[in-house]
Amino acid sequence: MDRRPRRPERREGGPAQAQTPIVKELIEYIAKSLVDDPTEVRVAEHGGRGNLRLELSVAEEDMGRVIGRAGRVANAMRSLLRVAAARKGVRATLDILEPR
User: N or C: lower Cβ tally within 10 Å for the chain?
Assistant: First the structure.
């Protein structure tokens, strides 16, 4: 018996953006669940080659719900994002944009 840890199997696929629609959908789902106006939730994807940056924008009156007290909700969303992205083999960050 070989007791060495097994390496995870490499998944076939294209660039990071092609493998990460689930990551983007996760952030959209969480944000839409938190806000009063889910039609104003927008998530934009940027990046490539193993790095992904998501930009979340919501209505001005919903910013407090998405950020939470002392940023706890935003940090929880970032943690979930990192875990989901790591399962896809990419690094991901979440930026919450201020409304204009």
Answer: N
